[in-house]
Amino acid sequence: MDGWEVMERAAQLARRGEKFALATVVWRQGPSSGKQGSRAIITADGQLHGWIGGACAEPAVIREARHVIASGTAKLLLLGDSDQFGEAVPDGMEVVPISCQSEGALEVYIEPVLPVPHLVVVGKSPMAQTLADLGRALGWQADLIDGSDFTTQSADRQSLVVVATQGHDDEAVMERAVAARPAYLGLVGSRKRGEAVLGYLRDRGLPQAELDRVRVPAGLDLGSTTHPEIAVAILAELVQLRAAGALAGGGLVSGPGKSAGDAAGQGDSAAAGNKAPEAADPVCGMTVPGGPGGLPLEHEGVTYYFCCAGCRRAFEKDPAAYSGRLLT
Question: What fold, for 118-265?
């Protein structure tokens, strides 16, 4: 894929709401197969589309791109032998050693492209309209749907659903909303009203684990507030949870009375548990994927991983020179 094809693929992924990172070579020092302006897309599962460099640079870029996607923060990388840069590395630039048979170097900017939040507000009150308008002001995709028109297809597992039907068929709407399993599901109403609705759904046989994910009342507790202020409180909670990473990986687990901080902590733990395994190439010391992509080789009961075939061959020729340098 050339540069324009990469950008077209990026637009397709963005329209589908998929997370990915865009990597761009902004400087090179030969010999290096990466060229200034070369671009590549790296998906959340580590697939690379485009061209960013050869066998040494590519694994490092994929690894760092996955970190960028997870954190949502861009990185400027300097790829090469760390000894060749000395004290010339500017602040804010991260040096990633790549030392396989080449003295070239690359400077790569990796930026996250995260899906725009999908906010679904169910109801037709002035508060519901205000909440949808506020979401759009943030650049989010915001749908305002009447309760009778809301179905399980109105939202997916990445959606943020706020049910603000306020007494108009709350139970039926909530049952459909729970079945959609959105990343966030909040009910606008008093705690007492929320307990009654959830109790009805429990009696209907809905799993307790799914009901525990419902936040009642939706939004930060700002005390006695007006309808527009309730909309602000709900949006503030969504922004807070999203910034903490608590809405990633299948959604929030937080029942009535649980704080946003509790939910954020659970989201952070889930993200930590999903971190891909890594290992160090015993030949060059570069960090590489710990799975099949790391060219695994077993020696005396220990599995080693490599950044490229050259390092793997060097190990095979003289395992004793490197087998004591395994790092994980």
Answer: Rossmann fold (3.40.50)
